[in-house]
Structure formats: structure tokens, C-alpha cells
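Lab channel / #folding
Pinned by the channel admin:
"Please post every new chain as: sequence first, then the C-alpha cells as a reply. Keep commentary short and put observations after the output so the thread stays searchable."

First post following the new format, from NK:
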Amino acid sequence: MQSAELSHRWQRLFPQRESSVLAKEWQCIESRYSEAHRHYHTLRHIAACLRWLDQLRDQIADPRTLELALWFHDFVYNPRRNDNEYISAEYAVSTLSVLREPKPVRDATRALIMVTRHPSRPVTPDQCWMVDIDLAILGAEPERYEAYAQQVRKEYAHVPDAAFAAGRKAVLESFLDEPNLYHTDYFRQHLESKARDNIACEIARL
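Reply from TO:
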């Protein structure tokens, strides 16, 4: 999806809201996801998540709220911090309040964003979809996965090679230590094996 398509999609989520307000919020989203230090956590990642959402929409209980959470889940991304999900969730709640979304939607969106903090323990079916969609890249084709790994390394350019390798390896091994990487049957059937192979190959390269 190109930026213009994403902009239209964002604004279609709020058909009753003023176009000027929606355009302003879109500018904030586009600006955040275009920050210079981002290489993977960009609008391309959001677009990929939205494609998964569209493919799986019939299996998701509340696809609109899940989409809201996908838009905001990496709104704040600072590799030097460990509270990005919390700040992103708080921003989402604030923005959705301005856009006059009801409190149950705001609360559900916040919970969906917070469950993307890894490792996570989703407790509802839609939270499981949220985590699996966010981590779908792990089960990509090897060439795409390798590009993703390189993009993540660029986002942590401030970290020396040895320290990055140790930290990244610990994260990857924590995924492999789980009985299942994915929480839904769909992703387990389609991506689990690929994801484990990709992660094992990256660990070997580190």
C-alpha cells in the first residue's frame, strides 16, 4: 500500500469525523512512522499487518478495533527505551478520545497494543491475532526475513556489534523456547515451521 492509500484507509475508519481532524492525525502517524531511525518499524510494516488483517477478517471478532491497534502499536518506537508499547497505547487512547471513540473501544485498543510487548501472554482470541500478525515477519520467506533482520540491526546502530548479538540472540532464543511461537492455529499451520527455521538461521549468523 502506498502512503495515499494508507491515508484513505485511515480516514475511512472514522466516517463521522471531520476530514480536517483526520488529516491532522494522519500527518502525525505518517511523520512518526517515517522517522529517520526507523528501518523496519515503518508504514511498510503497518501495511503488511493490514494485509494480514484483511486476509483474516472473517476470523477476527472485532476487526475494526484490531485495525485501530495495528495503526498505533508502533507509533512510538525508540530503540533506546523499553516502554514504547505503553507510550504508544497512551497516545492511542488520547487520540481516540479526541476522535470521540467510546471508552470500550479505547480500552480494547490499549490492551491490544500492550500485548505486542514481547514476550506476551494474550488472553483473548483477538489479542492472539494481534500478536501473531505483528510477528508474521518471523515466518516470511528467508530473503525477506534476512532483510528484516538487517533492518532491525540498523535500528540498533547505536549498540556495539557484540552487545547487539548477545541481546538479539537472547530475544530469539526466548521465542524458540516457547512451545509455540504463534498463538492461533492459522499462523501455527502456515508460518510456525518457517519462523523457527528463520530464527535458527539468524542465531547461527550471530
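NK: The CA atoms of residues 157 and 164 lie 9 Å apart.
TO: also worth noting, The radius of gyration is 17 Å.
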